[in-house]
Amino acid sequence: MHPDREASWTPPADAADQPRQVRRIVSLFRPYRGRLAVVGLLVGASSLVSVATPFLLKETLDVAIPEGRTGLLGLLALGMILSAVLTSVFGVLQTLISTTVGQRVMHDLRTAVYGRLQRMSLAFFTRTRTGEVQSRIANDIGGMQATVTSTATSLVSNFTSVVATVVAMIALDWRLTVVSLLLLPVFVWISRRVGNERKKITTQRQKQMAAMAATVTESLSVSGILLGRTMGRSDSLTRSFADESERLVDLEVRANMAGRWRMAVITIVMAAMPAVIYWTAGMALQLGGPDVSIGTIVAFVSLQQGLFRPTVSLLSTGVQIQTSLALFQRIFEYLDLPIDITERENPVHLDQIKGEVRFEDVTFHYDAAADGGEGTEGKADRGRPILDGVDITVPAGSSLAVVGPTGAGKSTLGYLVPRLYDVTGGRVTLDGVDVRDLDFDTLARAVGVVSQETYLFHASVADNLRFAKPDATDEELHAAARAAQIHDHIAALPDGYDTVVGERGHRFSGGEKQRLAIARTILRDPPVLILDEATSALDTRTEAAVQQAIDALSANRTTLTIAHRLSTVRGADQIVVLDRGRVAERGTHEELLELDGRYAALVRRDARLEPTR
């Protein structure tokens, strides 16, 4: 396991372009501009109501109390109470709407990233760790929750409060206002420095969280636990995880402490400002300056205290936005991933599919960023095509077996039909139509794949089967399972078809999982079937049972079998031997034995290995 390995894709050169990034962030909120307009009105109303209180206080101290006007005093007190009530109500409504909008934006982001990844080619997933992908969706988007749910609203709210408060302070006394705002530019500069520092640390922290998530995903899966236990590496894996966690601890501390002392200085200075105002007003009176009433000074200090909270919050929000830009950048990197396999603008849709498959002068090689799906062939020789000038015709309803040494391009050839990869030269056709011209729905209905690596969800047997056909009846499930030679085994389980298969199906044996996968494909009923070494990992007895299921599945279908064991392909209508990406031999089993070439050599090798299986 390689905790430090990252996906090899690199973001476009302009990914760090902050103005463009900010525009993209703003565009996320565009569908909800109506609700945001309501939030803006609530923010404005709340700010206006809140700055009214100091003026009411001034009138109370300068007029109502000194003059003994109890009626006015009652009205002013009632106004203060009403101001508090309205401010609180506006705040609750504002929080409700802004949180709802923020959560919808997070939902849109999660869905967009997941949908983008669903459209990526198989090559992307062969070079990207599962934990890295999960971390982008969970940790990165989750880390943006505060930003998208409250930061934008907080920014508008605090800015409006600051502007309204400064205007009110100027209305009371412009000289005291100048004294209060002298240090504000310095505070803004400090907050920007802190924001840039936290953004850099956040980028490092998210990468470390992704690496740790990938380590957990790999080592704590059923396969990972089996490997660690049987290799005696459990303690080593624990130490490795501890090292990863230790690095994350350091980054978390740095992220939380970045700029704390500088922001603390701002807090101390702003908290001390009332004393400065009292001192300034007192000195002005002593030196014969303009007379300032007690009510004006108290109201001004009240406004200044009201200015303190939104100003500090505004500076902190700026820091938070800088930090969140690092998270947004990581999400935008995934949203900007190039999609290699796309649907044509006006794709061809086939209602009736016969199942004739043709490979016409097919050439294929992996690009420099992708790792091969055939093991060593994707890495050993980048200059040599994995497939080179392959011409094969598979008539509808017939069977083709593809054999050859490891790295010959067998699996790649099969994966070109359902467009898990796209050819780099020539074309693959289905019923005479280039598969690149077909819509994805037609391809999904037309081609079924059963591979050696059987994948089952951590769900019930019935749910796993219905993944192929969500509206399948129980009778259809049972019929498919019977055809796959697995119904009796399922029925004998205590929970029958409601039995949970476990993580990756580990409650079932290899042969049972393969038969479940075959039953799932039978349920989908595709006219073209790709069998990618579906029995190579099974013992001879299990293989015989699975082969019966495969025979039932292959009946009346166009079948392409990628075979390791040649005993499973002798009855194929056509056998093709691939060698270094080229068709070396073709014919029936008997014809190729008579030729006494590569196929005959593979048969002899298979016969020698058979007793050991």
UniProtKB/TrEMBL annotation:
What CDD domains is this protein classified in?
ABC_6TM_exporter_like (cd18550)
Every ABC transmembrane type-1 domain range: 37-323
Q: What membrane topology does the UniProt entry give?
A: Multi-pass membrane protein
Cellular compartment(s): Cell inner membrane
Which segments does the entry list as coiled coil? none
Indicate yes or no for the key word Nucleus.
Answer: no
* Family to which this protein belongs: Belongs to the ABC transporter superfamily. Siderophore-Fe(3+) uptake transporter (SIUT) (TC 3.A.1.21) family.
Q: What is its main location?
A: membrane
Database matches in InterPro entries: AAA+_ATPase (IPR003593), ABC1_TM_dom (IPR011527), ABC1_TM_sf (IPR036640), ABC_transporter-like_ATP-bd (IPR003439), ABC_transporter-like_CS (IPR017871), P-loop_NTPase (IPR027417), Type_1_exporter (IPR039421)
Q: Does the keyword Coiled coil apply?
A: no
Which SUPFAM superfamilies does the annotation name?
Answer: ABC transporter transmembrane region, P-loop containing nucleoside triphosphate hydrolases
- Mind telling me which residue stretches traverse the membrane in this protein? 36-57, 69-97, 162-190, 263-281
Gene Ontology molecular function, alphabetical: ABC-type oligopeptide transporter activity; ATP binding; ATP hydrolysis activity
What protein name does the entry list? Multidrug ABC transporter ATP-binding protein
Query: Which keywords does this Swiss-Prot/TrEMBL entry list?
Result: ATP-binding, Cell inner membrane, Cell membrane, Membrane, Nucleotide-binding, Transmembrane, Transmembrane helix, Transport
One Pfam entry name:
ABC_tran
Q: Name one GO biological process term.
A: oligopeptide export from mitochondrion
Q: Where is the ABC transporter domain?
A: 357-605
The UniProt entry's GO CC annotations, sorted and at most eight, read: plasma membrane
